[in-house]
Amino acid sequence: MGESVGLQSAPIRTCVGCRNQAPQKELLRVVLREADVLPDQHRRLDGRGAYVHHQLECIDRAIQRRSFVRALRATQPLKFDQLLQFASSFVSPQA
Q1: Of 28, 67, 76, 30, which is closest to residue 49 (Cα–Cα)?
Q2: Own/partner pairs, 91-95, CB within 8 angstroms, 24+ separation
Q3: In the chain, which stretches have pLDDT less than 70?
Q4: Could you tell me which residues are beta bridge partners of residue 50?
Q5: Cα torsion for 49, 90, 18, 68, to the nearest 10°?
Q6: How many Å separate Cα 84 from the centre of its chain?
Q7: Which candidate, 92, 87, 71, places its Cα nearest to that of 28?
Q8: What pLDDT digit, counting tens, does each position of 57-75 carry?
Q9: How many angstroms from the chain centroid is the CA of residue 24?
Q10: Do the beta carbons of residue 46 and residue 60 sit within 8 Å?
């Protein structure tokens, strides 16, 4: 038997903002509800999801490049209010 018996590798996902791969636990999952892009912190919401780093740069880049539209297969204009509000909670204020 091989040495990898019993070892499980962490799922790898690609950030839709920067296109870098990272373990799933390091990324934020977002889902589409109606036209709203919602953060799914606990990865429990139903539906198609997309992954992005917990960084405003990646979120902004994904919005500008329309990466969320493609990844979530959206057919209507998207609203990012709740995602951006959530993202502002993990940005530390500049001292």
Answers
A1: 30
A2: 91/56
A3: 1-8, 91-95
A4: 30
A5: 30
A6: 12
A7: 87
A8: 999 999 999 999 999 999 9
A9: 9
A10: no
Return the SS3 of 68: helix
Give the right CATH number for 12-76 from 3.90.1150.10, 3.40.309.10, 3.30.70.890, 3.30.1230.10. Answer: 3.30.1230.10
| Residue whose pair of structure tokens reads 């839709």 in the numeric block | 16
Q: Which token pair is 11?
A: 């799922």
Q: Tokens in use for 38?
A: 């919602």
- C-alpha 25/C-alpha 43 separation (Å) is 10
Looking at residue 89, its pLDDT comes to: 84
